[in-house]
Every structure is written in structure tokens, then in C-alpha cells.
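Appendix B. One record, verbatim.
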Amino acid sequence: MFDGKDDAKAGYRRVEVLTGPGRRRRWSDAEKARIVVESWAPGAVISEVARRWQVCPQQVFGWRREARAGLLALPSDGAAAQLPEPAFVPILAEAPVVPALSPAASVPVIEVEIAGAVVRVPAGLEGAWLTAVLRSVRASAAAA
């Protein structure tokens, strides 16, 4: 970029120096693996890891996908190489067995049958919570 007149007699010209990573960088498999392992650390935020390595977050997600598919070899140094286990909430097919309470200590229970499900709620429970539960039951039945 030139600043000023563009003639041969002018002695002053402005030059811009661009710093930072250039375009089309090549990452070795070892560097990719290090970035992926760092992104799987507990509490790691993908955008922070990407910023630290000067790469866009989408690239990190792509490398993570490659590692899960077995296309990217991760280091074999113990826990760092372990893929994170997916965290799911277990679904109980049957109602859990609850020990019977003595009649004096029992709390009144309200039963609501909605969309083929029975929701048992102890009396005195907050109404906003119950509303949210009933709406989610009805929405899940409508989606099925």
C-alpha cells in the first residue's frame, strides 16, 4: 500500500508488514494430535484452544472427527490418548423400587397421567418445576 504520490522523485513510501500465520499452513499429524488431545482435556474450550494454536475452531472440530474415525493417530501416552466417553443420562425402563415409608412419614403424592406417562409429584412441590416437567413429557410424546 502506497502513501503519497506515486512518482519516482518521492522518497517516502509506506510499507505494511503482515504478521501472524500465513495462508494454507500445513499441520503435521503430531501437531494435530496434540491440539486434539488438548481440546479433550476436562474443562477445555474449543475456541480457546484454537486461538492459542492460531487455527479456527472448525478446523479443530474436523480433526476431532478424524481422530474419532481413526484417521488421525493420537499419542499413546496413557490418559492423553483416551477418547472422552460420551456422557448420557441413563434411561430407566422400569420404575425404581422405593422402600415403603411408614404411614406417619408418608407425603401426599399427586399422580398426573399425560401422554401415556404417569408423573408422581410430592404435594407442595414448586409449580414452575411441575409445569416444566409436564410440558417436556407432552412435547416428547408429540415428537414420538
